[in-house]
Amino acid sequence: MTAKGSTGVEVLLSTLENTKDLQTTLNILSILVELVSAGGGRRASFLVARGGSQILLQLLMNASKDCPLHEELMVQIHSILAKIGPKDKKFGVKARINGVLNITLNLVKQNLQNHRLVLPCLQLLRVYSANSVNSVFLGKNGVVELMFKIIGPFSKKNSGLMKVALDTLAALLKSKTNARRAVDRGYVQVLLTIYVDWHRHDNRHRNMLIRKGILQSLKSVTNIKLGRKAFIDANGMKILYNTSQECLAVRTLDPLVNTSSLIMRKCFPKNRLPLPTIKSCFHFQLPVIPVAGPVAQLYSLPPEGLFFLSSFYPQHPLDCMRHMDDVVDESDDNDDTDLEAENETENEDDLDHNFKNDDIETDINKLKPQQEPGRKIEELKMYEHLFPELVDDFQDYDLISKEPKPLIFEGKARGPIVVPTAGEEATGNSGSLRKGVAMKAKVSPKGDEGDKKPAFLDLAKEDMHDNDRTLPQQLGDQNRTISSVHGFNSDIVKALDRITLQNIPSQTAPGCTAGVKKDYSLPLTVVTCPKACPHVAACGSVLFEGRTVQLGKLCCTGVETEDDEDSESASSVEQASIEVSDGPTLHDSDLYIEVVKNTKSVPEYSEVAYPDYFGHIPPPFKEPILERPYGVQRTKIAQDIERLIHQSDIIDRVVYDLDNPNYTIPEDGDILKFNSKFESGNLRKVIQIRKNEYDLILNSDINSNHYHQWFYFEVSGMRPCVAYRFNIINCEKSNSQFNYGMQPLMYSVQEALNARPWWTRVGTDICYYKNHFSRSSVAAGGQKGKSYYTITFTVNFPHKDDVCYFAYHYPYTYSTLQMHLQKLELAHNPQQIYFRRDVLCETLSGNSCPLVTITAMPESNYYEHICQFRNRPYVFLSARVHPGETNASWVMKGTLEYLMSNNPTAQSLRECYIFKIVPMLNPDGVINGNHRCSLSGEDLNRQWQSPNPDLHPTIYHTKGLLQYLAAVKRIPLVYCDYHGHSRKKNVFMYGCSIKETVWHTSANATSCDIVEDVGYRTLPKILSHIAPAFCMSSCSFVVEKSKESTARVVVWREIGVQRSYTMESTLCGCDQGKYKGLQIGTRELEEMGAKFCAGLLRLKRLTSPLEYNMPSSLLDFENDLIDSSCKVTSPTTYVLDEDEPRFLEEVDYSAESNDELDIELAENADYDPSTQEEVLSDSESSRTYLP
């Protein structure tokens, strides 16, 4: 009997369990069926929680002993079990233990013509089959063969039974054992035949679910290699391709098209990349071989395969180990799910979508920061010379005032902090604005020697006394001449006479402005000269004596003159200038070339890319996030599948190949020309697939066999108004912002010569999806069966025979950084700004790693002023540890320019802090076009715990600087490492918190006992108020075990910096705030760097209120920024691998099998119906020009 107060369901179940009366049983079952049908999953779960599953299974077992069986009773029991079974996680095990599997199976076998009884039995078999052990058991008892007796060709009768049978078959075939049984009996051909029959006869598409059920069964059986082979042998590729193309016209048939595409992609024969090895085509011999890790594995492989590769890399000592790195793996050991929730090593701190507490550090003793000197104080004294500001008495400096003055804090009664905002004109004195600089197209060789203005870009005609001399003669004898791969064409001189990188004095003249306003600096000034000029006949232009460096080739047909109303006559000079705010002008083309001479690259690059020479200014228009047309993905995939079906249409011609040093460029005029032999360039091989379609292969990071994402290359020889498709086929991340509105960047030399020197977002039909090129298990971190991914985009070039450059993100080279630092050093006011540029160390290839110190000069050399100077707290900043995250350098550029500006708030900031900045932690990786690693082949942001001075010198010595500061009791107030993030939007931070880390382990009581200063949240909160691109909800303060070797965690834990952050900037754009719906540009990135500085000043005012005479209302702002209560009211937002909604096109994320292991005794999760996909819908906005 039930206890007093029992619910009605409990009473019904108790009665059902104990009654012997058949009619009572039937009545109760009827009531339960109605309850579950009306109440949905919630009532089913309640029934399960009250033991309903076990009671009903026992009832089924008992009812099966009756002879004859009572049909109505069996129908009712199976119906209710089919409804509640999916809600019971242990249902499959319970059913097997109770011995009811064969009862249901035998009912179907014995009553095939009794559709009323068979239907609920099939529904229950589908639930049973969600457990792999049950599925194998049923398969051995003939369930697969039984299903094929039920399903058959097109028929208008019993369509409901057919649908359920197909769903059951699809669930059963997920078992490898059952799939092999189906293949052995030829059922793959049967399924294809049935599908074609239903496709032909279902003209009104009323039976789409049956057709999809057939495809789901094919999808399950092709999870195994035998199934895929049987599918190919049965001509399945052509059948599904043709039927899916016929379905495209009907939108309601999209599920059939998507599932067909998924099957075809999965069955597309796996190929290896068309490379001799996936290891980088460049080799750098390490001074020390790591004892463990992937690099150690590369160096420890047996000497096989040498015969295959020696012709490609005879100079490489690692030839003997390259055989292993790219073997096609056709195994079935593929654990990818349809969501492809792979564990990627995303920038610094990605958290898995299904967050697992295993990676959260829960040991409080390990979480508590423990300052560890790590190195002896005697050893740390080697860094003393990098901190002269701590000992300098400034007796030899020309300071603003040498008279002693009272020591007063300058922050008293200041107005609000004003930072120039992207797209807005900076505030300040009108006289402090730098006037626009216009470059004349014709300059005299005799310039004003006293003019210190840097030459930005001399599109000049040099006065030549001997006009008959050819260009090579004018350049004189050179120590070494390297012919450019692509020479200058004579027609380039429509708009300029000659571009030279030799130092030619230039003059300026007033001219019309282009109306482009830059907030912090003027990277470049460009002039267009439409005047016709003499032909340039040289094949290459030697830029300076000694080491020869060449400028990449110019356009083959010259600069097209503008036809708009602003165009001048052919004899006039069109001039453009850019008005900027007060601050140093950082781009100097001549200086850039001089810097390049001293930059050491592994390939010994001798060319300079035009975008790096010309410079970049932000375009004067907004670039909205691209709205992706529905169905574009499947169209691209269908074109890929056509390569297998119509192989005769594929050209398959190599047009660019770094692996073959003897390779010659085809002379065909219709073929695009490619090049990547310049600093930060990355493009390894190009294969022409169709007339206007090219497959591109990226180079691996040096001393690595993976990390393919960053690209930067040159294209020429194009025709206008032709759609060119580019496929980068060896990407590795499981998803990308290219699926969510991000576009690649293009720089046109023609446009630059027409006074538009900027990178722009280009491309249509952009997709990122898994392809048929297989990664080896070694390259995939030991995981078998992984595939590469394709970035595909289509571009229409605006000019004929232009020279264009494509990049993953806005390039920022090591030479650009060195040029910028030199310009900052030359332009600063030494009486106001204390600026030092030191060399922290040398990299593996001999490049210097710069260290910058910025603060305000002391007001005088009087004792109090010197003390105030020395006692300023330190702020330590670093960036670009990952070479492919170029946005980090643009943010750092904004920070540096702001710190060196004449802005009053910048001066206040300098008076508050001493800034120690390592603007590029990985110079070698940046120079050589790596995406993530240094020349050691390792991710430097995973080496902070125990950096090796020989393999990781920049990390070793940067950590040494921080250890030195800790040893002399000058721990930085803030440490921030600038990064870029490829799969999230906005700018956000990662920090470190004991409380929030423990809180996310669900140990709330424990976390409430922790006392922690929550000041780590202050700076992110400030930035969320003042920086338009910053998003607080994306920030995370959880400490993970897998991130314990990153800069953020090590500096927090070992150095003791509470405010230790990683600041991640999106590569795509923003989905909130002022820039919502816009792709991010260099203007916004530099603004973020400046806003970070403003946030530091506000942090100083909030954390040191006694130093400032501020209204109490402003001091109360601190209480609004941080939550000091025990309970975390605004928990950390997890940073997901997939933070975007899924596309309706499921094929975007699923290309491989979802194999389930055939484990006889294992317990698997129960049946879980697939959830409905969400549709991504970005707001559509057109390109609009700023006012």
TrEMBL record:
<keyword id="KW-0378">Hydrolase</keyword>
<dbReference type="GO" id="GO:0008270">
    <property type="term" value="F:zinc ion binding"/>
</dbReference>
<feature type="active site" description="Proton donor/acceptor">
    <location>
        <position position="1064"/>
    </location>
</feature>
<dbReference type="GO" id="GO:0005739">
    <property type="term" value="C:mitochondrion"/>
</dbReference>
<keyword id="KW-0479">Metal-binding</keyword>
<dbReference type="InterPro" id="IPR040626">
    <property type="entry name" value="Pepdidase_M14_N"/>
</dbReference>
<keyword id="KW-0539">Nucleus</keyword>
<feature type="compositionally biased region" description="Polar residues">
    <location>
        <begin position="1169"/>
        <end position="1187"/>
    </location>
</feature>
<keyword id="KW-0121">Carboxypeptidase</keyword>
<dbReference type="GO" id="GO:0006508">
    <property type="term" value="P:proteolysis"/>
</dbReference>
<comment type="similarity">
    <text>Belongs to the peptidase M14 family.</text>
</comment>
<keyword id="KW-0862">Zinc</keyword>
<protein>
    <recommendedName>
        <fullName>Cytosolic carboxypeptidase 1</fullName>
        <ecNumber>3.4.17.24</ecNumber>
    </recommendedName>
</protein>
<dbReference type="GO" id="GO:0004181">
    <property type="term" value="F:metallocarboxypeptidase activity"/>
</dbReference>
<feature type="compositionally biased region" description="Acidic residues">
    <location>
        <begin position="327"/>
        <end position="351"/>
    </location>
</feature>
<keyword id="KW-0963">Cytoplasm</keyword>
<dbReference type="Pfam" id="PF25571">
    <property type="entry name" value="TPR_CCP1_N"/>
</dbReference>
<dbReference type="Pfam" id="PF18027">
    <property type="entry name" value="Pepdidase_M14_N"/>
</dbReference>
<comment type="subunit">
    <text>Interacts with MYLK.</text>
</comment>
<comment type="function">
    <text>Metallocarboxypeptidase that mediates protein deglutamylation of tubulin and non-tubulin target proteins. Catalyzes the removal of polyglutamate side chains present on the gamma-carboxyl group of glutamate residues within the C-terminal tail of alpha- and beta-tubulin. Specifically cleaves tubulin long-side-chains, while it is not able to remove the branching point glutamate. Also catalyzes the removal of polyglutamate residues from the carboxy-terminus of alpha-tubulin as well as non-tubulin proteins such as MYLK.</text>
</comment>
<keyword id="KW-0496">Mitochondrion</keyword>
<keyword id="KW-0645">Protease</keyword>
<feature type="region of interest" description="Disordered">
    <location>
        <begin position="327"/>
        <end position="357"/>
    </location>
</feature>
<feature type="domain" description="Peptidase M14">
    <location>
        <begin position="810"/>
        <end position="1100"/>
    </location>
</feature>
<dbReference type="InterPro" id="IPR033852">
    <property type="entry name" value="CBPC1/4"/>
</dbReference>
<dbReference type="GO" id="GO:0005829">
    <property type="term" value="C:cytosol"/>
</dbReference>
<feature type="region of interest" description="Disordered">
    <location>
        <begin position="1163"/>
        <end position="1187"/>
    </location>
</feature>
<dbReference type="InterPro" id="IPR050821">
    <property type="entry name" value="Cytosolic_carboxypeptidase"/>
</dbReference>
<dbReference type="InterPro" id="IPR011989">
    <property type="entry name" value="ARM-like"/>
</dbReference>
<keyword id="KW-0482">Metalloprotease</keyword>
<dbReference type="InterPro" id="IPR000834">
    <property type="entry name" value="Peptidase_M14"/>
</dbReference>
<dbReference type="InterPro" id="IPR016024">
    <property type="entry name" value="ARM-type_fold"/>
</dbReference>
<dbReference type="Pfam" id="PF00246">
    <property type="entry name" value="Peptidase_M14"/>
</dbReference>
<dbReference type="GO" id="GO:0005634">
    <property type="term" value="C:nucleus"/>
</dbReference>
